[in-house]
């Protein structure tokens, strides 16, 4: 809806009303059309101001309408009518002007913004382009290079940057609407021809072809298969080379291909999934809206290795007082230096003062006595963590929430070492912890709703996307990674190369294939885990066949590489070779290829031709299958949790929505059929055996992913 009133005698004030972000739903568009007509037809009205209610101008088109039969007036003619008006129209921008919201403002003759407002055209992040004239007006207003930057990245800008670029005409630190009304009165009656952006010529840019070629190359590289950024470049090119109306035709044409694409659906799903994970719930009935978090003012971090340092930085940057504990004096000094450096660099990037005084350092665990919450980040070793938890339980004040930053160890077991197991949760950060957005908050059967809520809220405060997950080996992300890695190893045994496997995954959209990723994170990490699990014993030990462990097919390839001291980038050799230890540019290693040949010969394996499709199916469907098991086990509340974990923590291409969304797009029948096919070919690999939930979903007619929660509930109640 839009409300109309008259202020200061001769200014028509239009207020967009659609909480919480005044999205341009059909009703709002109709409201704008009606109220603009009313203002223009009122002889008393000399100028018009458009604002949004509750201090929010407009969050853009209503994304919820996209998958529906859209009705109501179209945005393009609506904005065009505003631009063509014979009375000045001023946009009063408070809060946000995003997407269609900014396009609406660009159709106005003037823009007045509050100093705290944020503006942008983020459509590309939803798999779209600014198709309400944004790709045609913005370059005409601020030039091609700046418009390309904003439109292809979907970046939000501050009011100050908007003023500098020329997107807005005035910035105010006070009442925006009052300032806009005053502005409107000051321009009433003045000629408007020079204020209609669509009539501007696009500012000349030297060597346009070279500019677009360069941008297109960069965009293709960073897009990793996403089509919207490319369409955005093409649309801006139309603005630079065609008259406005033809440019608008091109914008429409490009939008039509994007609008119904699977990528747009995936990205819009991801947008809502990101918000859905905030509305967490646990099988015991704890919920986001009924669980009250404990206030956390002082947090402590135990163990200042790479993870602990990153966590301390993230906490301090979120404004908390941090007690950083490292028992080894030398490591403590090194950590202090490293944390200060990270804080200084971060502050410089964000243009703020470094929060150095927020962190105090100690080598004594007793220093955490006053902390409201403690995050243990010592070495991934259960015995060590157990000791730390016993100590924490003894020294912390009553009510302190105790968290473990483990990547997969049993949170419940650690809880059992303390006096208050209900106050123990996992906070699984991803490296580097001050940069990576994902946080898995792991609840055990005894974790109280309050402890979960406290960790979830703290994650939010640190700017993380926090997902509440149940306690199981590897939690969600690493549990699903296991079958994925396993398939990659098996594919090498059967004839693939690391290059082929990585190529398939990178072409799919991962920033790095599984072998490059393993080299980066260090092959010794997984080796240590396999050794602790009794898997990575030297070949032939305990009399078992080399490729069978604990009764299942096993590939010792990773262990054999580690035995050779090949730990990946850190040693300059792994699945690839690097120019030096710590080198980052992977190149193919002839040693590795002859090693694989020798390995196959030794085990009587005959290499066969493996294509990219098989790599994808084996690796991804095994991972997805585990995702179904996780859903079946009730480790997460819905598929959105898994998808967000994979998009934000494991490099799953966002334009493919996440593994569970992807499965739904491929078709559950197809995933089931291919898993059955691969399991038949490899009956000794349990991870390829289709999970019963997948079968049940297929029998229920393969519902789309947004209906799985409901179907899961029904299926569970039938059990
Ligand atoms: C920054 C935000 C706005 C606010 O952030 P925050 O304060 O943290 O709050 P959130 O939790 O994120 O959000 C609060 C709730 O609001 C919901 N929300 C937010 N934005 C929207 C929106 N735009 N629409 C609907 N709902 C929205 C959000 O989901 C929360 O609710 P809930 O918790 O989920 O219940 C932040 O929210 C944000 O960034 N929002 C997105 C901003 C954005 O991306 N805007 C751009 C939208 S796309 C757009 O504007 C496109 C315009 C181009 C014209 C489109 C023309 C369409 C038709 C063309 C058809 C042509 C093809 C024809 C094909 C054929 O021929 O067949």
Automatic annotation (TrEMBL):
A GO cellular component annotation here is: peroxisome
Which UniProt key words apply to this protein? Fatty acid metabolism, Isomerase, Lipid metabolism, Lyase, Multifunctional enzyme, NAD, Oxidoreductase, Peroxisome
Q: What is its EC number?
A: 1.1.1.35, 4.2.1.17, 5.3.3.8
InterPro entries recorded for this chain? Answer: 3-OHacyl-CoA_DH_CS (IPR006180), 3-OHacyl-CoA_DH_NAD-bd (IPR006176), 3HC_DH_C (IPR006108), 6-PGluconate_DH-like_C_sf (IPR008927), ClpP/crotonase-like_dom_sf (IPR029045), Enoyl-CoA_hyd/isom_CS (IPR018376), Enoyl-CoA_hydra/iso (IPR001753), NAD(P)-bd_dom_sf (IPR036291)
Q: Which residues form the 3-hydroxyacyl-CoA dehydrogenase NAD binding domain?
A: 299-471
Organism superkingdom: Eukaryota
Task: Please state where this protein is localized.
Answer: Peroxisome
Instruction: Give a GO molecular function annotation for the protein.
Output: delta(3)-delta(2)-enoyl-CoA isomerase activity
Pathway terms, separated by semicolons: Lipid metabolism; fatty acid beta-oxidation
Residue span(s) of domain 3-hydroxyacyl-CoA dehydrogenase C-terminal = 474-578, 615-702
Which is a Pfam family this sequence falls into? Answer: 3HCDH
Offer one example of a GO biological process linked to this entry. Answer: fatty acid beta-oxidation
Reaction(s) catalysed by this chain, per the record, are:
(2S,3S)-3-hydroxy-2-methylbutanoyl-CoA = (2E)-2-methylbut-2-enoyl-CoA + H2O; (3E)-hexenoyl-CoA = (2E)-hexenoyl-CoA; (3S)-hydroxyhexadecanedioyl-CoA + NAD(+) = 3-oxohexadecanedioyl-CoA + NADH + H(+); a (3E)-enoyl-CoA = a 4-saturated (2E)-enoyl-CoA
Where it mainly occurs, coarsely classed, is other
Q: How does it assemble?
A: Monomer.
What family is this protein classified in? In the C-terminal section; belongs to the 3-hydroxyacyl-CoA dehydrogenase family. In the N-terminal section; belongs to the enoyl-CoA hydratase/isomerase family.
Query: What is the protein's given name?
Result: Peroxisomal bifunctional enzyme
**Which organism's genome codes for this protein?**
Scophthalmus maximus (Turbot)
């Amino acid at each position: 809806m839009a409300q109309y009133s008259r202020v200061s005698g001769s200014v028509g004030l239009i207020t967009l009303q659609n909480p919480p972000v005044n999205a341009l739903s059909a009703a709002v568009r109709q409201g704008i059309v009606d109220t603009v007509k009313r203002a223009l037809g009122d002889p008393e009205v000399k100028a018009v101001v458009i604002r949004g209610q509750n201090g929010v101008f407009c969050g853009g088109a209503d994304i919820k309408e996209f998958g529906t039969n859209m009705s109501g007036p179209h945005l393009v003619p609506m904005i065009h009518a505003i631009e063509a008006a014979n009375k000045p129209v001023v946009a009063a921008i408070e809060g946000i002007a995003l997407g269609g919201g900014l396009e609406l403002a660009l159709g106005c003759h003037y823009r007045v913004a509050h100093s705290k407002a944020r503006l942008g055209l983020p459509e590309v992040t939803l798999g779209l382009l600014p198709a309400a004239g944004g790709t045609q007006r913005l370059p005409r207003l601020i030039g091609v290079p700046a418009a390309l930057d904003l439109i292809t990245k979907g970046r939000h800008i501050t009011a100050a940057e908007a003023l500098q670029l020329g997107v807005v005409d005035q910035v105010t630190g006070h009442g925006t609407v009052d300032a806009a009304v005053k502005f409107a009165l000051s321009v009433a009656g003045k000629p408007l021809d020079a204020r209609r952006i669509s009539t501007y010529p696009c500012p000349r840019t030297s060597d346009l072809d070279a500019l677009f070629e360069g941008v297109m190359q960069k965009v293709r590289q960073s897009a990793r298969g996403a089509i919207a950024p490319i369409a955005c470049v093409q649309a801006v090119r139309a603005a630079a080379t065609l008259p406005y109306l033809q440019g608008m035709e091109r914008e429409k044409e490009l939008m039509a291909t994007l609008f119904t694409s699977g990528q747009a659906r995936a990205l819009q799903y991801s947008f809502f999934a990101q918000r859905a994970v905030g509305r967490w719930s646990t099988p015991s009935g704890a919920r986001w809206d009924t669980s009250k978090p404990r206030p956390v003012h002082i947090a402590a971090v135990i163990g200042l290795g790479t993870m602990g340092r990153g966590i301390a930085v993230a906490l301090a940057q979120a404004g908390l007082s941090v007690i950083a504990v490292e028992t080894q004096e030398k490591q403590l000094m090194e950590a202090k230096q490293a944390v200060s450096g990270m804080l200084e660099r971060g502050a410089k990037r964000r243009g703020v003062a470094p929060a150095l005084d927020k962190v105090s350092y100690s080598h004594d665990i007793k220093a955490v006595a006053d902390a409201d919450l403690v995050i243990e980040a010592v070495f991934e070793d259960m015995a060590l963590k157990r000791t730390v938890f016993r100590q924490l339980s003894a020294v912390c004040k009553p009510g302190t929430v105790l968290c473990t930053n483990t990547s997969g160890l049993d949170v419940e077991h650690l809880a059992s070492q303390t006096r208050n197991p209900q106050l123990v949760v996992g906070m699984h950060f991803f490296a580097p912890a001050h940069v990576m957005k994902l946080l898995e908050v792991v609840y055990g059967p005894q974790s109280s709703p309050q402890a979960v809520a406290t960790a979830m809220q703290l994650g939010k405060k640190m700017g993380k996307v926090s997902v509440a997950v149940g306690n199981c080996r590897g939690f969600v992300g690493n549990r699903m990674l296991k079958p994925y890695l396993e398939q990659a190893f098996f594919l090498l045994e059967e004839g693939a190369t690391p290059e082929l496997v990585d190529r398939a995954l990178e072409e799919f959209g991962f920033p790095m294939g599984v072998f490059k990723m393993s080299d980066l994170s260090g092959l010794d990490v997984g080796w240590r885990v396999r050794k602790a699990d009794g898997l990575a014993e030297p070949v032939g030990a305990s009399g078992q066949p080399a490729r069978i462990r604990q009764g299942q097919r096993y590939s010792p390839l990773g262990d054999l590489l580690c035995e050779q001291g090949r730990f990946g980038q850190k040693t300059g050799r792994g699945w690839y070779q690097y120019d030096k230890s710590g080198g980052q540019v992977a190149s193919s290693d002839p040693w590795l290829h002859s090693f694989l040949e020798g390995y196959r010969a030794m085990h009587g394996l005959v290499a066969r031709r493996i294509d990219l499709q098989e790599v994808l199916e084996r690796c991804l469907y095994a991972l997805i299958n585990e995702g179904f098991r996780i859903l079946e086990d009730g480790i997460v509340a819905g598929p959105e949790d898994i998808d967000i974990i994979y998009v934000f923590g494991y490099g799953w291409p966002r334009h493919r929505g996440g593994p569970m969304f992807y499965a739904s797009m491929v078709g559950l029948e197809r995933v089931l059929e291919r898993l059955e096919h691969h399991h038949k070919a490899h009956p000794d690999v349990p991870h390829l055996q289709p999970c019963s939930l997948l079968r049940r979903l297929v029998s229920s007619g393969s519902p789309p992913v947004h209906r799985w929660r409901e179907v899961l509930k029904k299926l569970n109640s039938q059990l």
